[in-house]
Design goal:
Blueprint lengths: L20 H8 L3 E5 L2 E4 L1 H20 L3 E2 L5 E3 H7 L1 H4 L6 E3 L5 E4 L4 H9 L10 E10 L14 E11 L2 H21 L4 E5 L10 E7 L5 E6 L5 E3 L23 E4 L6 H8 L7 E8 L4 E8 L6 H8 L4 E2 L3 H8 L13 H4 L3 E5 L8 E4 L5 E6 L1 H4 L4 E3 L18 E16 L9 E3 L5 E3 L1 E8 H11 L1 E2 L2 E2 L10 E5 L5 H16 L4 E4 L5 H11 L3 E5 L1 H5 L2 E6 L5 E5 L3 H9 L1
Parallel strand pairs: 3-7, 15-17, 17-20, 27-28, 27-29
Antiparallel strand pairs: 1-2, 4-6, 5-6, 7-8, 8-24, 9-10, 10-21, 11-12, 11-21, 13-19, 14-15, 14-16, 18-19, 21-24, 22-23, 25-26, 29-30, 30-31
The protein binds one RNA strand through helix 14 and helix 15.
RNA sequence: CGGGGUGUAGCGCAGUCUGGUAGCGCACCUGCCUUGGGCGCAGGUUGUCGCAGGUUCGAAUCCUGUCACCCCGACCA
């Protein structure tokens, strides 16, 4: 490819609306261009990266026995009504209608469609296992798209779906996909971790997310410093020694009310009483399934409630913290002063009280007194608390002990979720009636897995991990071009001929080369090459040619070597290996 | 959806408070010059000042409405 034909326009300054480094660099390097919020043009250079990643994915999918197909982006509502998701998916699903007023949506994910594809043909257990995948544009009307390709509304996703006659077969495919994802992200040159993840409203299922470690990541992941335990913080557990409180020691003082006028927060109360926040219990009220019931949750004062865990524990579709004024007005709750001691559930219309494990080991602590402007001292959970149950509903904290090896400590990292593998079970095949005849000749609902990779997000994550002050440093496997040949003097016959020759020979060897033949000053070409991040740069200029040499420079190591022009080609090939 | 902010040339911005000929840097075009890290000189092109109303002799500027985009939060396969 010759620069003049390549449609590459770089920017000297960061675009004003870009926040994270990958977004800035992709815009500046002329890889993407914004069309609307969360909707981008993939320019030729950016598309080449996408295609490279897709190529790696295709190879690894083939290795798992997955076969590629392509399903429509526009999906009739009936399919979504069949699975039930038309009702509860919410505004993230972009709905539209055609000229006949028939309802459609833009597919944000394709479980319904793929079940429909498979059920039309698959009749027998002999056809299973089956794994279908596609690489396709998805649309999710995100509340807040941001960070360029990292959280777009329109984005390219590889989504695979597998069908099985039993759990063992599903399990095999699940781990084959897990291994494939590991291979894919490794080949893309990423530093990543597979982590256990929350399965959302689908209780009991197994799922792993693949996170690229990066400070700009939107997720927090937790991993053990001694073993291989790693989990999304939504799911992560700590090694909890005490799950129910002991009786208080003999002579423990009785609870005592203390005036705490206007002091509602844990910080205010603990600093006023000169105690650590960990010596308090805080209590929160959650509305479950849009107000159909309410629960009280108490947790150690310095900890936060993990709403994903709470939702899972309750088996709820949604939970939310109700409006404070509403709780005061409708339920008479002294917000800021409620506590788990002598709590009148009926009065406050609370269906149940849950205590996090973090309060079980506490003794002699402070909590709200259930009346305005007062707290209680000398609370002993083993004596004073009567929750309906103790459970794990808190976030783990940095330094908690590992639940797997019991010896290591948990550390937190930021991660970019680039992929997820999921055991779906019969969530879609059941309602949509996808059955096969089993060995006994009986109709049996198939069990499914699904496996996604954000292709554009993977590209963005690669930049987050591989850049410097000058620009992108592409991992070789996903670089738009492996080599940039800079012809510094297009006016010089020898330089022009030699650079073109090298370019042509590299292409013959199936090595992607970009020839910068522009009539620009050398500095411009160097800056652009660094910004775009070609792994290898070959400089052909009159200065080197006087010594009969070209210069080969590696972007990542900054290593420079001069090669005699006669064997420049083999030196370049060797440098890339 | 709540809070905050921004819309002026392809990009980055000033001008808006205090109404009076539309500006700067980069990019782009022409010529000269230069050629190993975003050269220099000279000349030039590019705008419904987001959109719609209103006030005014006169609106980028004041008022009303509206749209888009960005940030924080809530939310999120």
């Amino acid at each position: 490819m010759v620069w003049k034909n390549a449609f590459i326009y770089t920017l000297r300054q960061d675009p004003a609306d870009a926040e994270v480094i990958s977004h800035k660099l992709m815009m500046r390097a002329g890889m993407i261009q914004k069309l609307a919020a969360g909707i981008y043009d993939y320019l030729p250079l950016g598309l080449r990266v996408i295609r490279k990643i897709e190529g790696i994915i295709r190879q690894e999918m083939a290795r798992c026995g997955a076969v590629e197909l392509l399903m429509p982006v526009v999906v009739p509502a009936e399919l979504w009504q069949e699975s039930g998701r038309w009702e509860y998916y919410g505004p993230e699903l972009l709905r539209l209608s055609d000229r006949k007023d028939a309802a459609f949506c833009l597919g944000p994910t394709h479980e319904e469609v793929v079940v429909d594809v498979a059920r039309k043909s698959v009749r027998s257990y002999r056809d299973l296992p089956l794994c279908l995948f596609q690489i396709q544009t998805k649309f999710r009307d995100e509340i807040r798209p941001r960070f360029g390709l990292m959280r777009g509304r329109e984005f390219i996703m590889k989504d695979a779906y597998s069908f099985h006659v039993n759990d063992q077969s599903l399990d095999e495919m699940y781990w084959a996909m897990h291994a494939a994802y590991t291979a894919i992200f490794k080949r893309c040159g990423l530093d990543f971790r597979p982590v256990e993840a929350d399965s959302g409203t689908i209780g009991g299922s197994v799922t792993h997310e693949f996170h690229v470690l990066a400070s700009s990541g939107e997720d927090t992941i937790v991993s053990c410093d001694a073993c291989d335990y790693a989990a999304n913080i939504e799911k992560a557990q700590a090694d909890i020694l005490v799950q129910s409180p002991a009786a208080p020691p003999a002579g423990a003082p009785a609870p005592q009310e203390v005036a705490t006028p206007g002091l509602k927060s844990i910080e205010e109360v603990s600093s006023f009483l000169k105690i650590a926040p960990a010596q308090t219990i805080k209590m929160l009220v959650y509305s479950v399934n849009h107000g159909s019931s309410m629960v009280g949750v108490c947790i150690r004062g310095d900890r936060a409630v993990n709403e994903a865990k709470l939702r899972g524990l309750l088996g709820a579709d949604s939970i939310a913290v109700p409006d404070e004024n509403e709780l005061r007005a409708k339920h008479g709750m002294p917000i800021g002063f409620i506590g788990p001691v002598n709590l009148d559930k009926t009065k406050y219309k609370l269906n149940s009280i849950i205590a996090d494990f973090s309060v079980a080991s506490l003794t002699d602590v402070v909590c709200g007194a259930n009346k305005e402007d007062a707290h209680l001292l000398h609370v002993f959970p083993g004596r004073d608390l009567m929750p309906d149950r103790y459970a794990d509903v808190g976030f783990v904290a940095e330094g908690d002990r590992c639940p797997r090896c019991h010896g290591g400590t948990l550390k937190q990292f930021r991660g970019i979720e680039v992929g997820q593998v999921f055991k779906l079970g019969t969530k879609y095949s059941g309602p949509m009636g996808m059955t096969v005849l089993n060995e006994q000749g009986n109709a049996q609902v198939v069990t499914m897995g699904c496996y996604g990779i954000g292709v554009g997000r993977t590209a963005a994550a690669a930049i987050e991990q591989n850049h410097d002050a000058d620009g992108i440093i592409w991992p070789a496997a996903i670089a738009p071009f492996a080599v940039a040949i800079l012809c510094l003097d297009p006016g010089n016959e020898e330089a022009r001929t030699l650079s073109l020759h090298l370019h042509n020979e590299l292409e013959k060897l199936n090595i992607d080369a970009l020839l910068d033949d522009r009539d620009e000053r050398p500095g411009v070409k160097f800056k652009d090459a660094d910004l775009i991040g070609f792994p290898c740069r070959v400089t052909v200029g009159s200065r080197g040619l006087k010594e009969g040499c070209v210069e080969i420079k590696m972007r990542k190591s900054k290593e420079v070597l001069k090669a005699p022009k006669e064997n420049a080609l083999e030196r370049i090939v060797a440098a890339l290996a």
